[in-house]
Structure formats: C-alpha cells, structure tokens
Amino acid sequence: MKTEPVGGHPVHLRRMGSGARPVLALHCSLAHGGAWGALAGLLGDGATLTAPDLPNHGASADLPPGADLHDLSTAIAGDLAARIGNGAPVDLLGHSFGGTVAIRLALERPDLVRSLTLFEPVLFSVARAAGSAAWGDWLSGQGPFADMIARGDRAGAAEWFHGLWGQGAQLADLPDTLRRYILDRIHLIPATNSVLFDDRPGLVAPGRLEGLHLPVLLAQGAMSPPIVAAVNGTLAARIPGARAISVPGAGHMLPLTHAGDLAPLVRQHLGLPALAVSVEAGQ
Asked: Given this structure, which CATH class describes domain 2-130+189-270?
C-alpha cells in the first residue's frame, strides 16, 4: 500500500491479488479500497485488483477547495486505468458511488475500459429519465435526510443513511472508529447529487448509454431498496447486451457480504478460469 499522485491528487492505493488481468476497483461512499478484500481474495489468482481510496476516504487526501468529488474521482479512475492497463483497456469493478464513476469513465474514455462489473450503481438519474415510479417514491423519501444535513444533525443523518444502506444494522452497534468514520464523511453524500440525481455530466442523455459496447454485468441484492431495481433494470434495458442479476438474501453491501456468491459470476464475466475449489455461498 502506498500514497502517490493520481489524477493530480494524493491517493492511497491498495493492490490485491497476483493474477495477470489488471482490474480497477472503485469503492462505495463512506468506505475505502480495502472493502474489496473479500472479493479480491476470490479473484486474485487470475487478476490483480488496484483499489484506490477515493478523495476524502481512507488514507487519501481530502478534496481541494472548490473541487467536485465525482469529477475528481473520475479523473483518478482514468489515470489509474491508463497506468495499470499499460496501453490496453482494463476491467472495472464499481460499487454504489464507485459504480457511477465506472459508468462515467466508460462513457467519457471508452478506450480505457474493457468491461464493467457494477454492484448497485446509484445513478438515480437513469430511473428519473425513465419516468420510473420508484424514482418519485425515492425522491419524496429523501426529505428527512436532507433536513438533518441542512440543520447540521450529522448523527441523525448518518443513522438514517446507514439504516437504509447498511444491511439494517444500527449505527450505534458499529465499532467506535467505524461510526466516527461515517459521521465525519456524511456530508459527502448530498455533495454528489448534481451527478447522481441531476445528471450534470449528461450520462443518461438519450443515446449515451446505448452507445456503450462492452461487456456489462449489473448485480443487486434482492433485499435492497426498490430504487436499486429501477436503476439496474433501466441500465440493463439501455446498455446493449448488459446482464442483470439479483443475489438472494443480499442487500446493498453485497460485494462485502456475499463475495462467495458473486465471485463465480464475476470470474465468468471477466473470462477468468473457474475456481479450482468451491466457496461457501455468502462468505
């Protein structure tokens, strides 16, 4: 592990596995690159995962004044993809916020991306553009979180957010260091709304997603909020040849909680040999 300039920003990098295939793995909000450890352990014979801590996460530097988290994360992803690919496109794994960065990079720099494996990319704007009923329900349900952020109730906002996306566990039940980590970064969630809700970069404009011509796997947890199925379903309908799967018993954190279920599907998607030994589902 080391920190080095990437995309003009000090970025902490983890490299996991020893396989020949270079893979770039982009984590979800309020996490860090180490979140890929379980899945990397099941892919590492065939791939080497490079997993950055995105800005304001893990051991990477905070955003510079005036910078946008999604813009800078995309610049970092593009720089890393070019480096690890050594002139060839690479496979991208993206979870939640990281999945939206992966989609953006594939649209803006298709020369850098060989395939996409997306775990619940929270590109809510694609459901909005489709006129999905789930979008309206989702937007109307965001009021309490927005109100708590506006009045500076970080603890309340973090509890609300974690209750929705964190497998149902209570924030108070988390270890102190992890709870503080979430509290210190909860303001980053609404800071991404200009992309995830409002589509500032035009990622879901007519014809854009339809122009993606690469292998795409979309995975979701069967227990996740309805907006996830609306997003994944719309992406699968608009991206030519995209494959969508649902993992029984899983929620939003499925790359961590259900790596054993996902690994054979991801290996198949990447064209890696099947695991020599079976793994227990959900491990």
From this structure: alpha beta
